[in-house]
Design a protein that fits this description.
The protein is an alpha/beta fold. It is about 40% helix and about 15% strand. An eight-stranded parallel beta sheet has the order 1-8-7-6-5-4-3-2.
Length: about 250
């Protein structure tokens, strides 16, 4: 907690650029009823979601297997152009799927730093394919390893669980990574993913996260609209407070 408090102080003291980010809530659709995925996506957007978070797992980078670009293409055709698709690529060869995901209708391609030996070339390929660039790090990867690429990406994803499995406990000790990123790159979109819900949103927001992935806490709720509104409100208030503290 002391380290988190110090990082929060650094966030306020060392922000060097204007704040250009906003609160965005993205339900993780892997937590939905996959037998009616299209209608579940529609339901989440109608409940106020800002974007949809799609987890792609290949059975190699992580043990589980989910879906690939054919499913994304079907969802895009069904849902139209409005929903923003944030592809979380938990795959061992992220270079392989860039063009296919772009053609399928993905808006942002978020790959894992641990999965590639040439992040710069991959970032360039993603941009040339017309998508935004997200860069993710697992809990065991230091934020300093992401630093050389932070100025070249649109979003940094700090995993707050080990990737590949749902229902894990939120790892609060990942928040200093978020704080450091916010202090060094104040206008960067920073996403947290894993175990995030009403019980953990305050520490995420205070640390500086503005893009919130939430699975079962939103989709499994009896009132997803209220949960999304609450998450957004907490993050928006933290952004406003940070702006005033500057």
């Amino acid at each position: 907690m002391l380290l988190l408090a110090l990082c929060q102080a650094a966030c306020r003291q060392y922000s060097r650029y204007s704040m250009a980010y906003s609160a965005k809530i993205g339900p993780s659709i892997l937590s939905s009823d996959l037998s009616c995925l299209g209608s579940e996506c529609v339901r989440m957007m109608e409940c106020g979601a800002d974007y949809l978070h799609l987890d792609v797992m290949d059975g190699h980078f992580v043990p589980n297997i989910t879906f690939g670009h054919p499913m994304v293409e079907c969802l895009r055709k069904s849902l139209g152009q409005e929903p923003f698709f944030d592809m979380h690529m938990m795959v061992s060869r992220p270079e392989q799927w860039v063009k296919a995901m772009a053609a399928a209708g993905a808006n942002q391609y978020t790959f894992h730093l641990e999965a590639t030996s040439n992040p710069g070339a991959l970032i360039k390929d993603i941009r040339e394919s017309g998508m935004k660039v997200g860069l993710a790090i697992k809990p065991g990867t230091t934020v300093k390893e992401l630093e050389p690429w932070a100025s070249q990406i649109d979003m940094a994803l700090v995993m707050t669980v080990e990737p590949g499995f749902g229902g894990q406990k939120f790892m609060e000790d990942m928040m200093p990574k978020v704080c450091w990123l916010r202090s060094q790159f104040p206008s960067l979109d920073i996403e947290v993913d894993g175990g995030v819900g009403p019980d953990s949103i305050h520490c995420c927001a205070e640390a500086g996260a503005n893009m919130i992935v939430s699975g079962s806490a939103v989709i499994g709720s009896e009132d997803p609209r209220s949960v999304i509104a609450h998450l957004r409100s907490v993050v928006s208030e933290a952004i406003q407070k940070r702006s005033l503290d500057r």
